[in-house]
Amino acid sequence: MADPFLYNTGERSGYGCLGHEVQIEHIKAYVCRPSYFTDKAVIVIHDIFGWMFPDIRYIVDLIAGHGYITICPDFFKGKDPWKTTDHWHDFADWMEEHDPMKVDREADVVLKYLKEQCDAKKIGIVGFSWGGMAVHHLMLKNPQLSAGVSLYGIIRDSEERYNLLNPTFFIFGEKDHTISYDQVGCTGNDFYFPIFLL
Fold this sequence. Notes:
By secondary structure, the protein is of the alpha/beta class. Helices cover about 25% and strands about 20% of the residues. The chain has helices spanning about 55-65, 90-95, 105-115, 130-140, 180-185, and strands at about 20-25, 25-30, 40-45, 70-75, 120-130, 145-150, 170, 195. The two termini are about 30 Å apart.
C-alpha cells in the first residue's frame, strides 16, 4: 500500500519500493496499490532500462500514492533491457528485438488481470520513451484504455498515427535531439495531438 510521499531524486538508485512483484500468465510485473479501495488503474510502460529499474518503480509507487492501482509489466518478456554499458551503434539491432509496436498481447493480459483480479473499471496508460511509443501504439489499437500519456515517445512513420481511440496526451522536451519539433507539431484533418513541450 502506498500513500503520497516526497522523494529525494538524489537517492533513486537505492530506492526500496512500496509495491510487490507478481506473475501474470507469462509476464512478470511490479504492482503497487493505494491504501484504500479504488476501481481506477494505470499501466506504466517502462523505458529502455526495463521494468526493474528503480526510477520506474518509484513512478509506479508515486501514481499509486495518488489513488490508482498501478502496474508496470515486463514488456521485454524477460529479454535484457538496454544497459548504460551498451554501445549506441548496437541500438537499432536491440530495438528490432524490443519492438514497442509488439506489446498488444501483453497489454491484453495485464488488462484482464486488472479487471478480473483488481476490479478495475477505468484503466489508463503512461509510458516513457520506448514506453511512450508503446502507449501511442496501444492508444491507436486498444479501446479498453480510457486515456494515455506518452512522454518522449511517438510513432513517426504511420498514416494512422492520428487515429487515437481515446484521449492521449504527448509530452516532449523542446530540445530533445531524438524527436524534432516538426515531428510533434503536427495536425491532422480534424484532430491534433495535445502536446506539451518542456
